Amino acid sequence: MSMIYQTTGLVQTTDSQRRNVSVFKNCWNAFQEWRKWERLRRDLCSLSDQELEDIGITYGEIDYVASNRNTDPRGMRSAG
Question: pTM to 2 decimals?
Fold first, then answer.
């Protein structure tokens, strides 16, 4: 019986460690994504209105563009 308990205790510890590592990885990945968002937002905010116009966005669209890096902001404007 003690052998079964010791093995089960080891498995629980391993699962707990995996969960802790997974939580840490998720937090680290979220932090890295926030840093990318913040860097892009800062860089876009430092551009002049003319430079923003040259790349097809306005100052008011910076947060949207930074949050949706894979989306073309020109697609959200109405045609016409």
Answer: 0.62
